[in-house]
Write a structure and sequence with these properties.
Oligomer: single chain
Strand order of the largest sheet: 1-5-6
Helix content: 10-25%
Low-confidence stretches: none
Number of helices: 2
Mean pLDDT: 83
Number of strands: 6
Radius of gyration: 16 Å
């Protein structure tokens, strides 16, 4: 991404809705359901696995690990990736079902 006349510019993240589940180290069935079910194309076999108390995800950027407490996000293109709880809380907020799509 280029900057105008070599000057630094500021950007704001566009408001988008995502789906997410928090991996707690024990909710394996819920995570599998989240990764394998609609509304988007289910992930392909081998794109995630459980290793001890971690979830290994194959993301657009390569293999990443989700440890307990990490959120697993389904992005706007249907991609999956882990986000640390501390970052998730600063970046996302719950959507009130009655207000879905408002302001987007």
């Amino acid at each position: 991404m280029s900057t105008k006349e070599g000057r630094q510019m500021r950007y704001r993240k566009l408001p988008v809705e995502i789906e997410a589940i928090q991996w707690d180290g024990e909710n394996r069935g819920e995570v599998i359901d989240f990764l394998m079910n609609e509304p988007v194309e289910p992930v392909q076999a081998g794109t995630f696995s459980f290793i001890d108390d971690h979830v290994r995800l194959i993301t657009l950027e390569g293999a990443m690990m989700a440890k307990p407490g990490t959120w697993i996000i389904r992005g706007i293109e249907g991609e999956y990736y882990p986000v640390a709880d501390s970052i998730f809380g600063k970046t996302y907020e719950p959507i009130n079902p009655a207000n879905r799509g408002v302001g987007s």
